[in-house]
Structures are given as C-alpha cells and as structure tokens.
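P.,

For your records, the input lines for the assembly:
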Amino acid sequence: MSTESETVLAIRSITKRFPGVTALDNVSLEVRKHEVVGLIGENGSGKSTLLKIISGVQQPDEGTVEVRGKKVSFASPAQALAHGIGMVYQEQSLVPALTVAENIFLGMPGTSRFGVYRWREMRERAAGELERLGLRMDPKAVVEEFSFAQRQMLEITRVMQLGQRSGHEPLVILDEPTSVLEQGEIDILFEQIRRLREQGSVIFVSHRLDEVLAVADRVYVLRDGHCVAETPTAQASTAHLLAQMVGREISDGHYSEDLQVPYDEGEPALRAEGLSTGPECRDVSFELRKGEVLGIAGVIGSGREDLCRALFGAVPVKQGRLWLGGRRVRFRSPAAAARAGIGYLPAERRIEGAVMGMSVAENMVLAAPSQVSRGPFLSRGHWLKEVERWCERLRIKTPSGATSIGLLSGGNQQKVVLAKWMLKQNLKVLILDHPARGLDIGAKQEVYRIIRELAQAGLGVILIADTLEEVISLSHTVLVMKDGVVQRRLDAPRGAKPEQVEIVEHMV
Amino acid sequence: MNLTLPAGLAGNLRTALTPSRIMPTITLIVLILIVGGIQPQFFSAYSLQSLASAAGPLILLSCGEFAAILLGGTDLSIGAITALGTVLTAMWLGHTSSWLVIIAVLVIMAGMGAVNGAVNVVAQIPSFITTLGTMGLWTGVALVISGAQSIEVIDPAALSWLANYSGGVPNGFILALIAAVILGLAMRYLPGGHLGMYAVGWAESAAVMSGLRVAWIKITAFTLAGLFSGLAALVLVGQTSSGDPTSAASFLLPAIASVIVGGNAITGGAGSVYRAVIGACIITVVENGISVVGISAFTEQIIYGVVLIFAAGLTMDRSRVGVVK
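Structure tokens returned:
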C-alpha cells in the first residue's frame, strides 16, 4: 500500500547472531512518514537488538537497512542521527548540571564562536525547539531541578533537534519511555508522541500492550527473534497481541508432553502460606508436591520473580511462612536456602547463573563441592569423573572440563548451570527462572526434557517460563499472578491443558 | 570426549608452561640477570642472602594482600597491622614465653583482618574505605602504645632464629615460602578457596545465587590478610630486634605493587599465590638492584616507577582478564 517515498525506514530480512543465540532471524519492519509504530515483545525476543541495529549501535549479520529508499549501513549512532534517526534511551543522557538550552544543543556545531557560547542565540533557538513540541520550559533552567518526566521531554526535544539536522523529518525511537512515569505523565507523553507524529515518525517500544494500542498506528510483535505479527492497531486487541507475543508456534512434541507423569499427591516438597515481600508480592500461598512442576504465569511486574527470589532467600520475606519437606524454614540468604535443598536457576545466566571466567568443571561443582571432595579436599580424580558423567548425561558439548564456560553456547552453559544443582544430593526443590531464555529451539527442547526428568525423579520444580505455551506445556499446575497477588490456580495435567485465554484473562 | 581439569601441582606440564604462566618467572629472572650483569657483586652469597631476607616479609604481605584483591577488594590496613604487630611483639617478647607471644600476635592480627571483613560485609562499606579507616586506627594505636618510639626487644634471642640461616637461606624467607605454599595449596584444594574465593572475585552475584557463603568467604580473605601481616611482623621483629610503629606506610604500597606486578588482576577473580610470591620477588629485586647498581637517590624513583610499569605489562595474564582497570 505504501509507496517508496512514504517509507522512512525499511528493515529487510535482518539476521543478527551472537555466540550461541540468534537474536534476530529474518526480521523485516517498515516505518512510514507521520506514523507511530509500536514494537512489542518479551524480554529476549530481540527487541533491544533490533533497536540497536536501527540506531546504529550494532550492525546486522544479514539483511539490509534502507532509509528513505536508500540503502544504508550505520557504523555508529552518530551516522544514524545524520540520517535523522535518533533514540531516546531508558537511561537518560542529559547533563544535569547544565541548562535546558545547553542540553538541547550539547556538542553541536554552530552554538559557539571561538569556543564561547552565543548564549542569546542558543536560548532563542532552544525556545523555538521547545515551542514546536508544545513544551513550556525555560531554556535557562538547570536540568537537575527537573522531574524525570520533564527530563524525558527534554531528551525527546534533543533527539528531535538532532534528527532535524539531517534535513529530513526525523524518526525518533522511544525505548520503554513509560516504564518510570506516573499515569498523568504518561498522558502528557502520549500527547507529545502525537505531536511528534506530525513532524516525523516514531517507534514506540513498550511491554504494556494497552499503551501500544493507545498510541501506535501499527504494531509489530517480536518473539524469539522472529517478527510474528504486524497489525494495524485498529484491528488488534490486548488479548490478541499478548497471545502473539507469548507464542503459539510449536508442535506438541516440542515440549515432550508425553513425558509428563502425574505427581504424587502425598508429599509436599514446599509449602508457602501468606508469603509477602512487600508491595511486589503479597500474601502468596501454594503447595508444591514432589514431582510436580508448578508454573507461574504473569506479566512483568506481576511479582513472580520476587516470589521465586524470596523462596530462595535472595529477597527478604516480610511476612508469611514456608515449609520445606514438612519442616518450617526461614532463609536469610541464598546460601541457607541452598543448604536446605533449594536450587535456583537465574534468568540472567551470564551474570547470576554461571561464573563466566571460570571453567565448566568449576562451575559445575560450585553448589556441591563436597560431591567431588574427599574429606575437606577437592579430589581431582572424583572431579574429573563427575564432570565427565554429567557432560555425558546432559549431553553438554565442551572441548574439555577446563574450557571457560563463557566459550560454550547458551544451551550448553545452561546445562552446566542445571548440572550444578543436579549434583546436589539433598536437592528437594529447583526454581527455574526463564530456563530456556535466549536458547535456540534444539537447546530449548533439551532443557524441557531435563525439566521433565527432574520432576520424574521426585523433585519439586517451580517454573517461570518465557511463553504462555511453555508454562502450560511443562507444568502440572499453573499459578497466575497479577500485581503481586495470585489470581488463580489452574490444573494442567497431560491431555487436559488449559487454554491460553483462560490464563490471559487473569494476567491482564 | 577429552576432559582435562586445570593443572594440579603435579599436573599437566603443558598448561603450567603456557606463556602467561611462566611470564612472571621469566620477568624475575631477566631482572636478576640485568642487575647482575651491571653489578656482578649482586650474585655474591652475601648479597643474595640479604635479598632473600628482604623478600621474606614482602612475600608474606603480598600473599595477604592477594587474598583481599582476589575477591575484588583492597586491604589498605596490612601495613598498619604489620606495624602494630611489630610493636606488640617487641613489647611482649621477653616478658613471657615467645611461643605465647607468637600465637597471641597471630591471633590478634588475624582478628583485625576479620574485623575488616566483617565491617565490609555486614555494614556494606567498600573494603577500600573500611581498611583506609582501620589503617588510621591501627597506626594510631601503634603510635600511642609505643609512645611513637621504636621499641627494642628485651630478649633479642627469642625471635633471632627468624634472622638465622638454614643451609645459607634466611629462615624468614623459608618461613614466608612455607606459608605461601600452604596458602597456595589451600587455594587449590579447599573448595572455599579454589571455588569460593575465585567465584566471588569473578562474579559475586553468580556466587551468591549458587548458594556460596559469600559473607564468610570475604571475612576469611581479610582474616588471611591479617594473619599474613602478623607473620610478616614476626619476621621483621626477628630481623631487626625492634618494633617500629611508623613503618606502616613503607609496607603497604610495595605489597599491593607485588600482587599486581606478579600479574594478578586488580579487579579480582584471576590470579594465584604463585604470582603474588613472584611479584614480591620482582619488587625486592628492583628495590635492591637499584641500590646495588649504584644509581643516585634522585633517579632511583624514576627507574623504580618505570620498571614497575613494564614488569606489570609483561606479567599480566591477558587471557584471563578481559577488562583492565
């Protein structure tokens, strides 16, 4: 429908790979003149990589970027800006000690003569820029007195101004601009975005679907590095977008659903009663049986991460009680939780999951060094055997045990982190926070299979999954959380899985 | 699948001889040859003995500082703890059994280290500031109890065995090497060392989320720093028969320099006791060598500074350290 001249930015079949992960796989996207394009996707969907490519921070491995019909290749954000494309980051880049006018024109030629500011001219031009966006701000005011929302407006003004220097109508990228704003401020921001549309184009990134629907003309949905949908917002609904965002892609065999065996009704592995960590997670009660996989569904901010961290002692529990294997427990630290028999696989594998500078062998025995010790001393013989055994059992592909774990693919890294906990003899409960995040399909399937085996072996498993489909397929039971509270508990036995909509309606 | 673990002491010779591992030793040997080439007297038995005597306390301090730096921290108080240690030892020796004095000094110094660790961990104050504070504290205590005077040992025989020689090698040097070897073995064969300390140094949040007792590991590291300062204090009193409350500053920077010149990462996580020991030897050779070669006092500092930077450039294990700060 669009002609070339109307298209400001065209991303064509872009692929971007990182070691072990394909962040973007054949993604295409178009932004037209005077258009607000929404971009949604979960963490790890490839959103931020796409933004980095558009704004020139990273370069694609395959595919092309066209700006106003011409093929371009940005080596830096400065080059993207020279084509009128600028990004407003979540972390702001203003200098708090300087004035509004200085910030708008920071580092730009033409604002000074012989190294001395032409103050009056700069203020007049700043006033003009602010007026174009309908902002009432004194160009002489110092930025540090401004609220976060005001600074964001100023940042947008700055990026607009920079973009206009290209001689074209700019394309402004707003990355999660609402995440730290109050409702009233969000309304003002939306007003601004509508103004921006008259003067250029906007890419608006958010994980709040209602906002995207309110402000965007068209929405792209990213999932697992693929662009799974492109819809005019007039024809989209929140539930529809969420379903696309969290996914419905893969065949039944993918999750090895046939391997799910019913859990033993008898013995509780973990029981929580009225657990609270603060406003993030309130009054949560549940029972986890041996052999049960308990999935927790919820959007970002639903409190599910907080709950899991609290169970592992990484976030203090303010109220409520916890029983592990029938014994009342209270963990002051992850070390205490681990000693008692709880394991935790963090979502941030490279920061919290594995010690990147250490070897595969060292990472594997971090949580249970006694397994490879004789008396108080590490025994190299036992260590070697144990590492070999686990590499074989979990099919970990590594040149050797001495290889730095950072050199392995994401899937193999994750398997080492899993082995770290599986080595622990007294492990009763394993908490998995996005265990398959960022892994390719093959590695995902292997991780799913390991989760099944762990449950079969009698472990209680708590799962925060990447997608709704994942949580439904892998879990025996699903807890749905919203705003820190458990909304619903659904049984999800093999052959009688709940529909995604049943869960979605309690999530949003 | 071919699996090999990081080389043990009796382990894989090939890994032990990778360039990054032998560079510190080669740097040391080259420095010794340069000094000896300019002034052959450097190789005389007397000269080598005094070199080894000087290296003893620095090796101990370097090992202690290494424990703190390995965890990504800094211990600025080891000099002050050592100075206080020499004062206490000098005051007590001769009044009671020397073994009692040795044990008491080591326990107290280790305790001071533990206090550093505990303040760092419990109050969440950066070790740099914590130990800067205790550096002032213990220096002050040493000055007050000694009246800011050097204290002579009443019974110099009590610790003189540390200044004697076994087979021509100074006992203080031997003691330092034995302590370093024990620390090195502990770092290699105790889970808390090989896994705990290195993991905390590399990636503290991953260590926490693996259930490691990070607080205890940190306190242990600072306790070791205190304990090794105590050992250094004993060797110093043995060598000088006196306790010097004003000596704190002269120990600290050479100790930190030793750790880094040996090629340990100042950001923590990477390095070894071996590197700390070689680093201490390099510093000693450079300091002694400059005076042996007969460079004027004015240019001494220039040479020292330049050589230090070059040595660190040669010894750093760049395969293990991504970011240099």
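Two observations worth noting. Residues 1-14 of chain B have pLDDT under 50 and may be disordered. Chain B has 13 helices and four strands.

Regards
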